[in-house]
Amino acid sequence: MKKVIVIIILIILIVFFVLENHSVTKEIDTKIFINNGQIKDQMEDEIVIENNKKEIDDWKLVLVNFENPLPENFEPELTNIDKNRQFDSRAVDSLLQMLEDMKKQGYKNIWPQSTYRSVARQEELFSEKVKMYMNSGKTKEEAEKLTLQKINKPGTSEHNLGLAVDFNNVDYKFEKTKEYNWLIENADNYGFILRYTREKKDITKVDYEPWHWRYVGEENAKEMNELDMCLEEYVIYKDYNKNI
Ligand SMILES: [Zn+2]
């Protein structure tokens, strides 16, 4: 009988020991996992901080796209280029100089059709369209989805930034004009780049737009063309080189 009791006690001790060890292993695993999580969070925080710094550092390279919307209250300082159109005050002279030089050189069939649009105005247009779809029986979700096919989400258009210009009739015929060819050859001297090319569609997520030109400053524009980079690529490239 005594033997049986000793064996039972031994078994209990062994089971207890195994369980205890098991839970220690589990604890170590959990700790490693949590540490990894923290490191990852920390890295992400640093990347976000870097990006914010970049935006403050170089206003010419502010990236606005489907992933990077501008805040709702974003308002750049603007200068009128005519009765209805405005452009960022810091870049307006480059735009006007470029158009003047084009005309002087005989490239006269060029005009800025669409320049700055406020985020607030776009917000209005967006809500109006959503309401219209909802009035015709769609759910809010469906209505927003349909609206997104027609109108950029407020704050995600470069026109909200005041640094983008659409030329002439905003159509693909522009690509066939001598004015377009002049821009391809010379716009970087004035700090402008063709923002949405055919080749970079996978990165920009925007179809080719021969009419849409973005101001990034002369130095950046030349370097981007040399390196054959779109703005999404160039911003990462600049950030990377800054940290070396
Ligand atoms: Zn445009």
Summarize the structure.
The protein is α+β, with helices and mostly antiparallel strands and 244 residues long. Helices cover 54% and strands 8% of the residues. It has three domains: 1-57; 62-117 and 157-242, Muramoyl-pentapeptide Carboxypeptidase, domain 2 (2-Layer Sandwich); 119-156, no CATH class.
List the main descriptive attributes of the protein structure presented here.
binds zinc ion, alpha+beta, Muramoyl-pentapeptide Carboxypeptidase, domain 2, 8 helices, 3 domains, 244 residues
Overview of this protein structure:
The chain folds into 3 domains: 57 residues; 142 residues, Muramoyl-pentapeptide Carboxypeptidase, domain 2, CATH 3.30.1380; 38 residues, no CATH class. 54% of the residues lie in helices and 8% in strands. α3 packs across α4. The longest helix is centred in the first third of the chain and has 56 residues. It is elongated, with a radius of gyration of 29 Å. The N and C termini lie far apart (76 Å). About 15% of the residues have low confidence.
Describe the protein's topology:
Blueprint: H1 2-57, E1 78-80, E2 86-88, H2 92-104, E3 112-114, H3 119-135, H4 140-150, E4 164-167, H5 178-186, E5 192-194, H6 201-204, E6 212-215, H7 218-227, H8 231-242
Antiparallel strand pairs: 1-2, 3-4, 4-6, 5-6
The protein binds zinc ion.
